[in-house]
Amino acid sequence: MVVVGVLSLQGDFLEHIQLLATMSNVKPKHVKMPRDLSDVDALIIPGGESTTIGRLMKIKGLDKAVVDFAREGRPVMGTCAGAILLAKSVVDRVVGKVNQPILELMDIAVVRNAFGRQRESFETNVLVEGLGSIKVVFIRAPAIIDAWGDAKIISYIDYPDIGRVGAVAVQRNMLAVVFHPEISGDTKLYEYLISMSRR
Predict the structure, then answer these.
(1) 121/23 Cα distance (integer angstroms)
(2) Where do the domains of the chain lie?
(3) Distance CA 121, CA 54 (A)
(4) Buried b / exposed e across 99-114, counting CB within 10 Å, b at 16+?
(5) Tens of pLDDT along 82-123?
(6) Percent of residues, the chain, with pLDDT higher than 70
(7) Taking Cα atoms as reference points, which of 41, 100, 105 lies closest to residue 68?
(8) Residues of the chain above pLDDT 90, percent
(9) Per-residue pLDDT tens for 45-92?
């Protein structure tokens, strides 16, 4: 049985929990305090308001705990806001430079709200290297615009006005995903995350 923690401070953590509960040999767990990570094999940082999640993590001491968790080699997947929190460089499409707490774990640069606001949300299929086509939902999604070091963009999307940008990046045991896989119900990325915990 693999215990997959979901950071449950703000955002759509419940949808991740519900999807994980449908998978065999997976036990989902809410993570609200550092101690909740003690028996967790892999962690998901969900979508929501990245600034709010970052501030709440800092207040609860989860920022340091998650950094330690990742540096120990345990798998972490950040979706949408979670991808922003994992990045080392973050700017906003409209306001430019932002001052928000981030974990700075992955060698990637991210643009917040790259695809527009809520009304520009859309559903599509993306090709992810090694996983094939995945049905996904973009909601106020960021975009990965650069990766360096041993970080690698493994999925791209071509979008009007912004061109070709990254949708998924991987770096060792970490995965940054700009869309919402929990809404479409496709489990391929979850299976990939779990496979990392078994290595």
Answers:
(1) 27
(2) 2-197
(3) 23
(4) ebbbbebbbbbbbbbb
(5) 999 999 999 988 777 888 999 999 999 999 989 877 667 889
(6) 98
(7) 105
(8) 85
(9) 999 999 999 999 999 999 999 999 999 999 999 999 999 999 999 998
pLDDT for residue 122: 87
How many other CB atoms are found less than 10 A from the CB of residue 64?
Answer: 13
Q: Which CATH class is domain 2-197?
A: alpha beta
Q: Which helix (H) or strand (E) is 19 found in, with range?
A: helix 13-21
Average pLDDT over residues 147-156: 98
pTM, entire model: 0.96
91: part of which helix (H) or strand (E)? strand 87-92
> Residue 40 is encoded by which pair of tokens?
């967790």
Compute CA distances 124 → 139, 171, 179, whole Å.
Answer: 11, 24, 10
- Amino acid (one-letter) located at 98: V
Instruction: Kindly list the catalytic residues.
Output: 80, 180, 182
Q: How far apart are CA 127 and CA 103, in angstroms?
A: 27
